[in-house]
């Protein structure tokens, strides 16, 4: 069911904001079908980099973006933000099928209900978003992201507003449902990156650079208590200057 | 229920103050009639008051409807087209610089003594609050929703984004405009009636005033106030019903 894996290549990315060069000449390669986590402190330019990949360009940011097949990425990306971005006047099912309605297509209700079942929201299809908890809303947003069925999925700290337990559960769900797609997840939580990433990139410095961490053994979602995860966690904290 | 009780208590308090002013100031009935005199007049002239109130109510409702349609269309044009913004926005602002009072005689001259001029007055007076509020709402669509739509669409489709996202997102702002409109529309209608008419509460008040029937004037004023309050609450209740997703309580509002 998952679309064929698509690698992503961004070259010479540059962001100048308020006279400050946040990054310049940055290259980023996402391996097709892999879950990559981009880890870095707040204000480093992670979100801007993700928005550039999503085609949400703004003043001061530029870069050469294309898919592994050499074609533009437009229309082949799904985007999930820190806020669930559910439209409050639509019920959950209509929120999940928003993309097709925007494009003037017939919404595939059956597939939407299927996806809602997979994120555990079967009973919530007719509910308004404001009646759901934060975790349920973010699960609905995940279903909407999957409904787009794009080979590339970009996520901007999608779980950071949730409580610890809900976050762990949603991470596992995301790892399961997004398997086979090219995913870039931006986060400032090292444990989240280590738990979910096939590859982890650390974004640091000014102007910022990207450095890959050694890949961890095992298949995501990894156990946060795993000794290899714990060792890598300590290494990251040292790298980021927090310990 | 508690709200109704509180309202009645406030009303009783106001009546008491009113009676106190009349009694203590020893005011003659042609300056300020006391509440029982006004009540008596209300009872005596119930038929005529009701008839005139019906005319005024019709003017207000027609003015509200047309003003909302016109204001809504203007706001959509402003929100959708840059050219409309360049041409219409200065006109809209200039239209507010001219007091409605000043154009009332003109409207009566052009549209006659009947319903038309009063409907036009009510429409004119609500046009700006409806347009300004709705346009403001259309301009302030949360960026996250627009980003989401842009990633979902292979090429930009402004109409689809307006229809599915910006327009519904602006409805609460339109609602604020309608609440203001409900509060000021009666002013427009009564103003029109003062300038020239043969029916309506404004006409009745002017008529009673010139004949020193101050009790009738007050009775008409009370009916007008009841009409205005009723209109406001009807609009408010309608908005709460049609926009149930709009957070009224700021604590449940989206943090964005």
List the main descriptive attributes of the protein structure presented here:
heterodimer, A: 243 residues, alpha/beta, Rossmann fold, 6-stranded mixed beta sheet, 3-stranded antiparallel beta sheet, 8 helices, 9 strands, B: 256 residues, mainly alpha, MetI-like fold, 82% helix, 0% strand
The radius of gyration of chain B is: 22 Å
Counting DSSP H or I runs of 4 or more residues, the number of helices of chain B is: 10
So what's the CATH class of the domain at 88-245 in chain B? Mainly Alpha
CATH names the topology of the largest domain in chain A as Rossmann fold
List the helices and strands and how they pair.
The complex is a heterodimer of chains A (243) and B (256).
Chain A: E1 8-17, E2 20-30, E3 35-39, H1 46-53, E4 61-67, E5 77-80, H2 92-96, H3 98-102, H4 109-118, H5 134-147, E6 152-156, H6 164-177, E7 182-187, H7 190-196, E8 199-204, E9 209-212, H8 227-239
Parallel strand pairs in A: 3-7, 3-8, 5-6, 6-7
Antiparallel strand pairs in A: 1-2, 1-4, 8-9
Helix pairs in contact in A: 4-5, 5-6, 7-8
Chain B: H1 2-25, H2 35-44, H3 46-80, H4 82-97, H5 100-111, H6 115-139, H7 143-152, H8 158-195, H9 201-210, H10 214-242
């Amino acid at each position: 069911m998952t679309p064929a894996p698509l690698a992503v290549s961004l070259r010479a990315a540059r962001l100048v904001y308020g006279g400050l060069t946040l990054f310049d000449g940055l290259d980023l390669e996402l391996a097709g079908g892999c879950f990559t986590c981009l880890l870095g402190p707040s204000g480093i330019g992670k979100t801007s980099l993700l928005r550039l990949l999503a085609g949400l360009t703004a003043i001061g940011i530029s870069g050469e973006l294309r898919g592994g097949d050499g074609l533009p990425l437009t229309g082949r990306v799904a985007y999930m933000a820190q806020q669930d971005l559910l439209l409050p006047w639509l019920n959950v099912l209509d929120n999940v099928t928003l993309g097709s309605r925007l494009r003037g297509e017939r919404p595939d209700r059956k597939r939407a209900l299927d996806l809602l079942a997979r994120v555990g929201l079967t009973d919530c299809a007719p509910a308004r978003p404001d009646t759901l908890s934060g975790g349920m809303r973010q699960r609905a947003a995940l279903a909407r992201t999957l409904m787009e069925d794009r080979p590339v999925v970009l996520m901007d700290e999608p779980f950071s507003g949730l409580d610890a337990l809900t976050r762990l559960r949603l991470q596992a769900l995301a790892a399961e449902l997004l398997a086979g797609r090219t995913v870039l997840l931006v986060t400032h939580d090292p444990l989240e990156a280590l738990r979910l990433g096939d590859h982890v990139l650390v974004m640091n410095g000014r102007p910022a650079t990207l450095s890959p961490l050694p890949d961890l053994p095992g298949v995501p979602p990894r156990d946060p208590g795993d000794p290899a995860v714990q060792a890598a966690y300590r290494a990251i904290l040292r790298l980021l200057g927090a310990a | 229920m508690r709200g109704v009780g509180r309202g009645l208590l406030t009303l009783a308090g106001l009546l008491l103050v009113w009676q106190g002013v009349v009694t203590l100031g020893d005011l003659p009935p042609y300056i300020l009639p006391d509440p029982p005199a006004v009540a008596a007049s209300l009872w005596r002239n119930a038929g005529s008051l009701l008839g005139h109130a019906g005319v005024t109510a019709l003017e207000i409702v027609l003015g509200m409807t047309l003003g909302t349609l016109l204001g809504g269309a203007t706001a959509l044009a402003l929100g959708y087209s840059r050219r409309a913004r360049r041409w219409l926005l200065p006109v809209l602002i200039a239209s507010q610089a001219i007091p409605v009072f000043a154009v009332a005689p003109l409207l009566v001259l052009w549209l006659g003594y009947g319903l038309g001029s009063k409907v036009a007055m009510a429409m004119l007076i609500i046009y700006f609050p409806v347009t300004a509020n709705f346009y403001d709402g259309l301009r302030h669509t949360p960026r996250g929703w627009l980003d989401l739509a842009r990633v979902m669409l292979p090429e930009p489709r402004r109409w689809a984004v307006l229809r599915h996202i910006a327009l519904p997102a602006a409805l609460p702002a339109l609602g604020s405009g309608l609440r203001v409109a409900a509060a000021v529309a009666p002013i427009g209608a009564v103003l029109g009636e003062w300038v020239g008419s043969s029916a309506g509460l404004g006409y009745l008040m002017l008529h009673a005033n010139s004949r020193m029937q101050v009790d009738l004037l007050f009775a008409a004023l009370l009916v007008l106030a009841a009409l205005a309050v009723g209109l406001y609450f009807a609009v408010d209740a309608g908005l709460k019903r049609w926009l149930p997703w709009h957070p009224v309580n700021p604590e449940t509002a989206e943090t964005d």
